Amino acid sequence: MSVNIQTLDLRPMPPFQRHEKIFQIWDELKAGETLRIINDHDPKPLWYQFEVEYKGKYAWNYEQKGPKDWIVEIKKV
Fold first, then answer.
1. What is this structure's pTM?
2. Average pLDDT of span 24-35
3. Cβ count near 9 (within 10 Å)
4. Alpha carbon distance 72, 6 (integer Å)
5. According to the 3-state scheme, what is the secondary structure of 9-29?
6. Among 28, 41, 51, 75, who pairs with 34 as Cys (CB 3.0-4.6 Å)?
7. Would the CA dihedral through 48, 49, 50, 52 be positive or negative?
């Protein structure tokens, strides 16, 4: 069984564009697919936004918690 993971490196992107790009990709994912983000800080504000808008529809897993980069897998359930 293949796993569909799309990786998005946010580090070179201006901060004001990041959430828009994340949700653009997220909306295109099918159930069971994963968005993997690489960020230059803890994406906790993004987690709060997912909790408000997608509660029960995603699984959040930190692959790496700093100190330089944070990597998170967000699976659509």
1. 0.93
2. 97
3. 13
4. 11
5. ECCCCCHHHHHHHHHHHHHHC
6. 75
7. positive
- Tokens encoding 24: 């653009």
Residue 14 corresponds to which tokens in the numbers above? 């201006």
Average pLDDT, the chain: 96
Write out the two tokens for 68. Answer: 């330089």
DSSP string, 21-77: HHHHHHHHPPTT-EEEEEESS--HHHHHHHHHHSTTSEEEEEEEE-SS-EEEEEEE-
Q: What CA–CA distance (Å, rounded) separates 20 from 60?
A: 18
| pLDDT score for 3 | 76
Does residue 1 register a pLDDT over 90?
no
